[in-house]
């Protein structure tokens, strides 16, 4: 039950994040939306993990481990994007001076 | 059962509302604040999905470090004045994009509902082989043994990300200290937190790392907490980060993945397969790797949040 | 004995929830930021304190008892730090109303 | 499909992945000079590992397989180097070696000189890119492939804006947004596939998935994500500015290798994971997009005023050819025609890698010496820079598909497979694309061969090593056409979707 509900929440977050990323105008805003999208993807994965419980485990540990790895990689991607945005803004300062 | 369902519905509704709030927000600051709240609710959702390891990570990285990163970036952009914006799509285009995204959500939702029952998976396989890993936490077993390669590569990706972020600095400042410098504060709440929390945080992180072999927890969660403590002290201006050219700093980031790969290659030499651990010594080997990896990952995460060396004036 | 403990738990948690409700009402209804902060920090942490005290008989082990107390203490520290920071920021943003 | 069993030669592709990644990590504390020396030292072992893999795969007629930590899928992870993977390993090793030797001029560090930012970043990024492409072609697990995609993105993005100019940073940001969106959509598909089949191993998945709703949604999401990374029209918008703005050595690896990584994963998805799913309509759409990319990309290249952008748009077009193989392989599985199309697609990927790397290096040399890359003002370059221009011309022959070049072999195979399969319209696209390619290559050559020009001759430079390296790659791309067709049988070994 939880699995289905949060799986559907994940699907909704994917749509919301994607929309925000595509129509956003400020780079930082689009990065936030990318993170929303990512959280939706991980939730779908989490729902899959929860459904796969058994053999004494409440949830399938393999997708859970995969989600952990994915979260860290997605965070690294966010930092790279933020660094680019900051550099771009800094460059404009230099142009102005 | 009913209570559980009620909690689930409340969590899902709250998280959905916050997500909608993020994309409707006019100011980036509002969006980030709502996003952090959303991350915290998601951490609870992960608990409900019986994924305590993920819940810890989501709270620490998804809400915590990402939140700090985004807020600090907004702060610097707000002071710098000009954030480049791209042109907004027209009204018709926006409607079409919205319809497209709605279609994706519907298709995805349908796919989630149509997943086969009983769900196929590897829980039984993990249970059957967990004894060979000498670990009690199946997630740690998957991360360090069955799918050790992914974990190893991911640690390498973090090193690569640090290199990438540093390479984005201007030529004039790139050998300086990472991030914009913060002024030292000797009193006030920031200083209070920066002095009070780190000892507690370090104890908690080591605890989480240590129990991670047998209970929820592990290197990523511990590293995220350590990184947060480091950032707290940094924001209070109580420590100076070594410059990017510093050899010890670079060695700290590289040590974890390098050791992991060295042990993997040793497994190749001794056992005949990359990442095969020596028999009987599996758990001690994994614990050593996890400790060094936690230190390296913590350093990398903190440096990623600090960002490229910059000559911005302090706020 | 356990019945008494359960009764205590229920009473303390109910009282805690009462303070949370009061704090939330204050957050929504008070006119300016300072009073809202006051309502939030004061009532919430009294509320949390009561919840934690109520849970202590259910902790079962010394380790869990200490964990519960640590939660309370850490939240107190966090709000003790965050409250003044927010207050300073608002004073800068909305000078002397 | 039976579970994979390790082979003794599996060590070779495994080391081909691990060594560059390890070198990238160690490069950070070593600093730019150490990183440069380590990269150079790794070129030969890396090449030999790739060559060894190819020989082992060719002689045994079976893929080289390594089981990590002795754990076999579905629980564990496997590296599986089939013929296509071995060929790509070899191509990557050669291109990386050429680019590394070429880049010593621009990013080399003399002993005692301070570490520059560009040198500090370039060498580890190149190593990561090498490890990433090797991983993308040999990993046999859908999530490991996600990590490979991210490794490629994180290495490629900083290379785009290595010079720090504002327009390159903007290009890098656009590239990163496309790439991140692409990988997150891919990951979403991976989640649904795991939910449907309970494993992520490609070999185990093949044949297991039917035409169920989650599988269809997953295939659509993963394909869209991979196309964004491969820059197939209409998701190519990020490519021209990103590839044209990067330093020459970086552009060479970006165009030659990075886009091929996601392409190989796409091939594995459709012919491995979804082998049992009827897919011909989807294949026709992919090839249709490819055809559009060939025609529109070539036309755009024809219209570019700047040389680097012309070469970048040419990449958009050449990527299109790769997608013509999809309906031809899927249309008549297990036939001679399918084998022909498969070989054609593989040879196109490899010959384009050599030709495009050569072309970007040559263009970089020309732009560096003339001081600009405006095509209209290139008159007289033939006299002052004959070798880069010759390189450009030879690489152009491969891109056009003029015999006897590697590109000719690839395009001929695709063309005849299209006619045999009764899908003659793709043959027309191949011919039309060749003509347009001829047009833009001729445009550059004709201006450059004009001897009278306003071009102030740069200080005459003797053709040095960089010129020779670029020329060597171009010669290689042509020489592929002289290789007897039979030896392309390598790429057929362990081909997914064939009877084992």
Automatic annotation (TrEMBL), chain A:
Superkingdom, natural source: Bacteria
Any Pfam family matching the protein: Oxidored_q2
Keywords carried by this UniProt record: Cell membrane, Membrane, Transmembrane, Transmembrane helix
Key word rRNA processing present: no
UniProt GO cellular component terms: plasma membrane
Topology with respect to the bilayer: Multi-pass membrane protein
Residues passing through the membrane, by range: 6-24, 31-50, 62-86
The keyword S-adenosyl-L-methionine is annotated on this UniProt entry: no
Compartmental location: Cell membrane
Family: Belongs to the CPA3 antiporters (TC 2.A.63) subunit C family.
Protein name: Multicomponent Na+:H+ antiporter subunit C
Organism: Neoroseomonas alkaliterrae
UniProtKB/TrEMBL annotation, chain B:
GO cellular component, one term: plasma membrane
Domain of life: Bacteria
UniProtKB keywords: Cell membrane, Membrane, Transmembrane, Transmembrane helix
Transmembrane domains' residue ranges: 29-47, 54-73, 93-113, 152-169, 189-210, 222-241, 253-275, 287-308
Cell location: Cell membrane
A UniProt-annotated Pfam family: MnhB
Domain Na+/H+ antiporter MnhB subunit-related protein: 192-307
Record-linked InterPro entries: CPA3_antiporter_subunitB (IPR050622), MnhB (IPR007182), MrpA_C/MbhD (IPR025383)
Domain MrpA C-terminal/MbhD: 16-78
UniProt topology in membrane: Multi-pass membrane protein
Family indicated by similarity: Belongs to the CPA3 antiporters (TC 2.A.63) subunit B family.
Name listed for the protein in its UniProt record: Multisubunit Na+/H+ antiporter MnhB subunit
Organism ancestry: Bacteria, Pseudomonadati, Pseudomonadota, Alphaproteobacteria, Acetobacterales
Automatic annotation (TrEMBL), chain C:
Keywords: Membrane, Transmembrane, Transmembrane helix
Spans traversing the lipid bilayer: 6-31, 69-89
Source organism, top-level taxon: Bacteria
One MF term in the entry's GO annotations: sodium:proton antiporter activity
Database matches in PANTHER family: ANTIPORTER SUBUNIT MNHG2-RELATED (PTHR34703:SF1)
Name of this chain's protein: Multicomponent Na+:H+ antiporter subunit G
From TrEMBL, chain D:
Membrane topology note: Multi-pass membrane protein
Cellular component GO terms held in the UniProt record: endomembrane system; membrane
Any one biological process term the GO annotation gives: ATP synthesis coupled electron transport
Major localization listed first in the record, in broad terms: membrane
Location of the protein in the cell: Endomembrane system; Membrane
Residues forming coiled coils: none
MF (Gene Ontology): lyase activity; NADH dehydrogenase (ubiquinone) activity
NADH:quinone oxidoreductase/Mrp antiporter transmembrane domain mapped to chain residues: 139-436
Transmembrane segments: 12-30, 42-65, 85-107, 119-137, 143-162, 174-195, 215-239, 251-271, 283-303, 310-329, 349-368, 389-412, 424-442, 468-491
Key words, A-Z: Lyase, Membrane, Transmembrane, Transmembrane helix
Protein name (Swiss-Prot/TrEMBL): Formate hydrogenlyase subunit 3/multisubunit Na+/H+ antiporter MnhD subunit
Organism: Neoroseomonas alkaliterrae
